[in-house]
Fold this protein.
Amino acid sequence: MDLQLTGKRALVTGASRGLGYATARTLALEGCQVAINSRSQANLSAAAEKLSQECGRPVTGLPGDIGLPDVPAALIQQAVQALGGLDLLVTNAGGPPAGKFEAFDDAAWQQAVELSLLSHVRLIRAALPALRQSPAASVLTITSYSVKQPIANLVLSNSVRAATVGLTKSLALELGAEGIRFNSILPGWTETERVYDLMSQRARANHTSVEEEIAKQTQDSPLGRMAQPQEFANAAVFLLSPAASYITGVMLTVDGGMYKGTL
Ligand SMILES: NC(=O)c1ccc[n+]([C@@H]2O[C@H](COP(=O)([O-])OP(=O)(O)OC[C@H]3O[C@@H](n4cnc5c(N)ncnc54)[C@H](OP(=O)(O)O)[C@@H]3O)[C@@H](O)[C@H]2O)c1
């Protein structure tokens, strides 16, 4: 199948590693012009350089913390300038801290809203003028399967990301008539660097191995394992591509069947 991505202009935020990086890499390998973002200039430059070498064309690194109010609009402006427009936008960042309800005060909740809801709002709002110029405009928000089945000890993520899914669906309904598609992927446990570090910490604390900790975490998973970032990226790039031209408003769990509901 031809994903029809050659020459499409894409910005992926939160993309120096993990799910964002895997998505940016796959877009670049499919022929997109890609800009990536993260907070750390050093990590971002290294990631952009690696992608440029692998794909044989320049990949632009645009540093900035998208959890800060003024950064998303500036970032979109820089991406549109660097790429000569924008067709595809992936809104992604790190997650809010883990913890139970009584661990968090209003400031922590507000910070979670800034990072896991308002960053998406601000990026999409700033990108709309450029997306309206594109014949293949598509936006993908990265959230979590925890919006369908809350994960213990992650009350901030469980709560705030549900609003991002509501945002994504609302935009699909509101802007479909203009030809702009909006979808979200709700990933389950995926072996990114962050998750590997988390499993390593658990292994040290429990005097076990990383493999044993991963096995414990996935014992309830029908496929019995975590995803690889490329498995996430395959779904993400398809949803973004013109090959998915009749798919909008979809909240797709890519979780190996971990979510046990029927809808
Ligand atoms: N992996 C999983 O199993 C899983 C499952 C469900 C949901 N998720 C969610 O999916 C998202 C991506 O997960 P991941 O595992 O790929 O995470 P990750 O390995 O921690 O990568 C996050 C990426 O985002 C960048 N980033 C973090 N905060 C940022 C900010 N405020 N502004 C701009 N860039 C930022 C990081 O680079 P810098 O540090 O340089 O900024 C990094 O490139 C997270 O929100 C995570 O909670 C992941």
